[in-house]
Amino acid sequence: MLAGVGENVKGTLILKGIDESRLHAMDWHVTTIPPPMSEILSALHSRYACKVFDASKKIPHETWQQLEESLILTPSSFGLQPWKFLIIQDKELREKLVPHAWNQRQVADCSHLVVMTVPKVLGVDYIDANIARMIEVRGGTADALTGFRNMVVGFRDGLEAKGGLEQWAKLQSYIALGQFMLAAALLKVDTCPMEGFVAAKFDEVLGLEGTGYTTAVLCPAGYRSEDDRYAVLPKVRFEAKDVIEHR
Q1: What is the pLDDT of residues 95-144, one digit of tens each?
Q2: Under 8 Å CB-to-CB from 113, ≥6 apart: which residues?
Q3: β-pairing verdict for 12-15 and 190-191
Q4: In the structure, what pLDDT confidence band is assigned to residue 32 with cuts at 50, 70 and 90?
Q5: CA of 111: how far to CAs of 14, 107, 193, 195, 246, in Å?
Q6: Which residues on neighbouring strands pair with residue 12, listed in sequence order?
Q7: Which residues of 210-237 are buried (b: 16+ CB within 10 A; e: fewer)?
Q8: d(Cα 51, Cα 228) in Å, to the nearest integer?
Q9: Which domains does the chain have, with CATH numbers?
Q10: 4-42 CB burial, b ≥16 within 10 A, e <16
Q11: Alpha helices, DSSP H, located in the chain
């Protein structure tokens, strides 16, 4: 029996939240129903940059596993995934980070602190590792991907010549940040994107020195406190006509 089946019309299986991998082997045409747009917009309206977390509330393991998966599934340029996500739950360690985050308590009081790190230098070996993973997942040969590899290496070399590799990687990490925050909102988990921190000090406390990685952006996640007055304030956004232009 398949829980969550919506309907079966002419061999097309309509699903809600089902692991599709097992079904493809059955030669079904699989269509996954996305959340209603009203649900997505409701989540976006209710989310905000949480200023005060309830330190007594923890994200359930099953919920957190979904959020980790959202990080893994983040798209990136060329599919290079130039990041490593540190999930900090150690209370003592997080307290050490607070002074280097402009004394913002979200870092310590959240349930899970996501520290998004990126490589300072993206070597050709990283690209080769990515291609090896592509072959592992999709099949094929390295020879068949020579053209793709040359293109990516050329892009990487051009960025390196301009000193822009680390900044490019940091911009990529913001894609992960946005995807994580939306996933969290849909799961009714609060977040707070944070740029207010001293990266060098975070790298020192987290033992990143010498690893080739540096802190790019933070995202505490957990549940809002009843004392957070920002939770009930209306959102301030420009009107659509001021920020969207159709041509």
Answers
A1: 999 999 999 999 999 999 999 999 999 999 999 999 999 999 999 999 99
A2: 87, 88, 89, 94, 97, 107, 218, 219, 220, 221
A3: unpaired
A4: low
A5: 35, 9, 14, 19, 41
A6: 9, 29
A7: eeebbbbbbbbbbbbbeebeeeeeeeee
A8: 6
A9: 34-243 (3.40.109.10)
A10: eeeeeeeeebbbeebeeeeeeeeeeeeeeeeeeeeeeee
A11: 21-24, 37-46, 61-72, 91-97, 106-109, 124-138, 146-161, 165-186, 199-205, 240-243
DSSP 8-state assignment for residue 143: G
30: pLDDT strictly greater than 60: no
Mean per-residue pLDDT of the chain: 90
User: Are the CB atoms for 225 and 128 separated by under 8 Å?
Assistant: no
Task: Tell me the C-alpha to C-alpha distance, in Å, between residue 94 and each of 103, 160, 220, 228.
Answer: 11, 34, 11, 20
Q: How far is residue 119 CA from its own chain's centroid?
A: 16
Query: With 60 as the cut, is the pLDDT of residue 45 above it?
Result: yes
- Share of residues in the chain with pLDDT > 90 (%): 85
CA 76 to chain CA mean position, Å: 11
Q: Note the pLDDT of residue 36.
A: 77
Q: Is residue 23 scored above 90 in pLDDT?
A: no
CB 126 within 8 A of CB 119: yes
Q: Give this prediction's pTM.
A: 0.85
